Amino acid sequence: MRSPSLLPLAAALLLAGCDAPTPEAPVLPPEPVEEDVPLCGGYGKAEPVGQDLLNLFETAVQGTEAEGFIPKSVSSQVVAGMNYDFACTVPGSDAVRHVVIYQPLPYTREPPRVTDIR
Question: Distance between terminal CA atoms of the chain?
Answer without folding.
Answer: 79
